[in-house]
Structure formats: structure tokens, C-alpha cells
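seq:
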Amino acid sequence: MNKNNLILASASPRRIALLKQVGIEPEAIVPADIDETPHKGELPAIYAARMAREKANIIAAKYPGKIILAADTVVACGRKIFPKAEDAKTAVMCIRHLSGRRHRVYTAVCVIRDGREYEETVLTQLKMNRLSDKEIAQYIAGNEWQGKAGGYAIQGTAEAFIPWVSGSYSNVVGLPLYETLKLLKRAGW
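struct:
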């Protein structure tokens, strides 16, 4: 495992697991506490990039000389940005809205080293099957939706609801690995 001065500005277990999957274990995991409210009229990709950049900059100020990796994942349908589901009511609202529709997942990745920012936003398009009220209730009862953007985790039970994915699967999980490794390499990691 390479621990070469890398600070992960996220406590997401999915991001940690994805990094481990490619042999990266950050020196430290330091989540950034920021206001994640979208600005009025803010487009999903712009919002994701702003969140990743803000997280990275806050942690970079606390850890000079380190390489900071931050990311933000957004589920969107049209211009609508779906929240992270913190309660069952929000999760049901998200799943009902996504049921039977195509939607997009954006993950913005920001790497900061010595004041230089390296950024990329990755788009993956998906389709969710039309779900019955019973299927939605069963999914909600399993609690996989907790804290997940759009109320679902593709790497769990919800994968059975997704017949079509175009783009990076790891992006939907929470960190596009190919692009993240490319950014880290550009930053000299």
C-alpha cells in the first residue's frame, strides 16, 4: 500500500474501499465539514465540482505539503439534484422519482498539491427499472439507502434495478478510479 502523503478528504467507506481496491491507503482520512446546499439554479456537474473543490481546499489549508484528494457524487435527473437520503421518506421520494427513468451520476474529483488544483468531473448515465410500491418498500426496509446520493447504492441490492449503465461503474459507487489515478499522477503522486 502506498501512503505517499495522501490525505483523503472524505469518510465515505465506499471511497476508502475503492482506493484500497487499487492499492491506495491514504495516510489520513479527514472529512471536510462544509455546507452542501446547492446554489439556486446550480447545475449538477457544476455543483459536484464546487463541492469537491471546497472540500479539498478546506483540508489543504490544514495539511500543507500533503496531497489532498476530495470527491463529491451527485445523482441528477434533468436539472434536479437529488439529496443524500438521511431518512426513509427522502429515500422513497428519490427512488420513486428515479423509477423507470434514465438519470445521471456525476462525481467530481479534486486533487490539491502545493496549491495547484487538478480536477475532473465524470458522468455516468443509468436507467432504473420501473419499481412497484412493494419493491420500493422492500428496498427501503434493507436500509442500504442511508446516506446515499439519490437514495440508492448500486453496489448493493439496487444493482438489480439497473439494467443499463453507460460510463464508469466506480463513478456511481462514489469515486471514478481511472480518472482519480490519472489526477493523482498529474499531481506527482
